[in-house]
Design a protein that fits this description.
161 residues, alpha/beta, Rossmann fold, 6-stranded parallel β-sheet, globular, YspA
Length: 161
């Protein structure tokens, strides 16, 4: 079983969603016979990755950063997707944090990396913002740990301004 985690931008433009979906499908296709995907299923890249894992018949593991994440952080426009992916997951890990905050997100990213053999990063290559817990931070942490990182940023993809 190949276990692949995801990190990526949440703020993809509407036009980028299908581009990222198709690029993730191509990236994950070589692992289709033996795939476990690990995702926090946040809006954007995390959920797109999780949807592709399910479409390809892979095993989905969801990591939820905190006990209050669903009720306090999942916006109405993402609720249906979030709930559908929870239902599709083979395993759901809810971390012990009471509230969703930077510490919970950083812990969730570390949990993803501990469970994975590879990391797929839907990342435009920009350096860390300095806030911690972002896509670039997770890529750097994975590389420091010796985890292979596949960067996916298809031509034409962009983030909302």
């Amino acid at each position: 079983m190949t276990t692949i985690a995801v990190t990526g931008h949440m703020d993809l433009t509407e036009a980028s969603v299908s581009l990222v979906h198709d690029a993730l499908r191509e990236t994950l296709k070589p692992y289709v016979d033996d795939l476990t995907g690990v995702s926090c299923i946040a809006k954007g890249s995390d959920s797109i990755f999780a949807e592709v894992v399910v479409e390809l018949g892979g095993r989905l593991v969801v990591v939820i950063p905190s006990k209050d994440y669903r009720q306090n952080k999942v916006k109405p426009d993402h609720e249906e997707t979030f709930d559908r992916l929870i239902d599709a997951a083979a395993e759901v890990v809810v971390l012990e944090h009471e509230t969703a905050n930077r510490l919970a997100y950083e812990d969730a990213n570390r949990t993803l990396l501990k469970r994975a053999e590879r990391l797929v990063a839907v990342w435009n290559g920009e350096p860390p913002s300095g806030k911690g817990g972002g896509t670039a931070d997770t890529v750097l942490e994975a590389r420091d740990a010796g985890l292979p990182v596949d960067v996916v940023w298809p031509a034409g993809a962009s983030r909302r301004a």
